[in-house]
Specification:
single chain; about 400 residues; alpha/beta; 7-stranded mixed beta sheet; 5-stranded mixed beta sheet; about 15% strand; binds nicotinamide-adenine-dinucleotide
Length: about 400
């Protein structure tokens, strides 16, 4: 498998072709500012101690504190964490929120751990990085296999050590501990706002657009929900067990009800069963991959019929497939823009915590729209001017902003 860190640096090299960047600045951006490594000694339920390798990568903080999730997974590597922290810098920069990238990871298999073991691991992780995180230093959040409950343990451990409440040190917390209303909907809603802007600039007629959504978890469901509400037609939906298709359109809520009852979208009344591969190759206008990375590859890219793609998942298109899509004239809204609604509402959570002032859900939604629409407009402008794909346009914008901030601070 390719090394994600090498990929992130290669990607930066490609962006460098379009911007004014000297070698010294390039090197600074290619290497995270700090990578914390720790061996977490955790007491297991059988009374024995087990050691888990943990990482926290802090990429760049030219515009604000580091921000990024913590993943618990057996396949976590230092290089993966470093790459993800770099991509977080660009994502925050694309939407113009004042954070730099960060990311954390622990090599563990949470599926084989009890709740008590997970809690002790989460608390040990915070003790290992306590001096390096804080409202103005680095603000962790959930990622793969971590959730609001884990964030609650983590914030509690942090506050016990520093001796005072500091909810803004971690986002993605339960509402009762200062989590933001609207965080659940945020990623899908942000992607929906991107869709709306795309339809506007391309002057498309929304009621005639057919959409296929791969993945029906948090992001895929909320995207479908908001799209259906304003008359887009969701004709196909899938999850890990397979997909469903209905030419006259699916009702996202009814499909979710069915999934909750049966465990999958498959078998939804009045729909035709299709495979995940078939879903990607359907004759639709808009494809929204919202499940996994690397689903559109050199092997299936030629069969993609959609004219537009909204990348809700992280990294759903491989670089080779990206080139083919560009040649075919398919416009793909990159993940750093399309799924940035999540980190944006995490930023809102941090703002609310620090001000000790809490917003209503519709206020969160309105503020998210302002940020997403502005980001879309800015990326679109670069896309039109530079004649590159939307991903490169987003990167050009993001990297330039970070370089500018570094220069203004007197560093290169
Ligand atoms: P989730 O776990 O809630 O849902 C994932 C969905 O994908 C599930 O319906 C699952 O059945 C489906 N799936 C799994 N394997 C599949 C396969 N092989 N084929 C088709 N479907 C499959 O996850 P989520 O939070 O909705 O995240 C989805 C994607 O969006 C991920 O790439 C994630 O990194 C990205 N993302 C999510 C957020 C967020 O706030 N939730 C933010 C940014 C990016």
């Amino acid at each position: 498998m390719s090394n994600p860190y090498k990929n992130a640096v290669k990607q930066l090299r490609n962006v460098a072709k379009y911007i004014d960047i000297d070698e010294e600045t390039f090197k600074k951006l290619a290497v995270p500012k700090k990578v914390i490594k720790a061996d977490l000694k955790v007491k297991m339920d059988d009374g024995k101690y087990k050691v888990f390798k943990a990482f926290r990568s802090q990429h760049n903080n030219a515009v604000g504190p580091h921000k990024g999730g913590i993943r618990f997974h057996p396949d976590v590597t230092e290089d993966e964490v470093k790459a993800l922290s770099i991509w977080m810098t660009w994502k925050c920069s694309v939407v113009g929120i004042p954070y730099g990238g960060g990311k954390g990871g622990v090599i563990c298999n949470p599926k084989e751990m009890s709740e008590g073991e997970l809690e002790r691991l989460s608390r040990a992780y915070i003790r290992a990085i306590v001096d390096d995180i804080g409202v103005w230093k680095d603000v962790p959040a959930p990622d793969v296999n971590t959730n609001a409950k884990i964030m609650a343990w983590m914030v509690d451990e942090y506050e016990k050590i520093v001796g005072h409440p500091e909810p803004g040190v971690i986002t993605g917390k339960p509402i009762e501990l200062g989590g933001s209303l609207g965080r659940t909907e945020a990623t899908g809603l942000g992607a929906f706002y991107v869709l709306e802007q795309l339809v506007k600039v391309k002057k498309l007629k929304k009621s005639s657009l057919k959409i296929a959504v791969q993945g029906y978890g948090n992001a895929g469901y909320w995207f479908s929900y908001f799209a259906k509400k304003v008359d887009y037609k969701i004709v196909a939906i899938s999850d890990s067990r397979g997909g469903i298709y209905k030419v006259s359109g699916l009702d996202p809520d009814k499909v979710m009800e069915h999934k909750k009852k049966s465990g999958s979208v498959v078998g939804f009344e009045g729909s035709k069963e299709i495979s995940n591969e078939e879903l990607l190759e359907l004759n639709v206008d808009i494809l929204a991959p919202a499940a996994l990375e690397n689903v559109i590859t050199k092997d299936n890219v030629k069969k993609i019929k959609a004219k537009y793609i909204i990348e809700i998942a992280n990294g759903p298109i491989t670089p080779k497939a990206d080139e083919v899509l560009f040649e075919k004239g398919v416009i793909s809204m990159p993940d750093v823009l399309s799924n940035a609604g999540g980190v944006t509402v995490s930023y809102f959570e941090w703002l609310q915590n620090n001000a000790n002032d809490y917003w209503k859900k519709d206020e969160v939604f309105k503020k998210l729209k302002v940020i997403m629409d502005k980001a879309f407009g800015e990326v679109w402008k670069v896309y039109k001017k530079r004649k590159v794909n939307m991903r490169m346009a987003a990167y050009i914008l993001a990297v330039n902003r970070v370089i500018k901030a570094m220069q203004l601070k007197g560093g290169k």
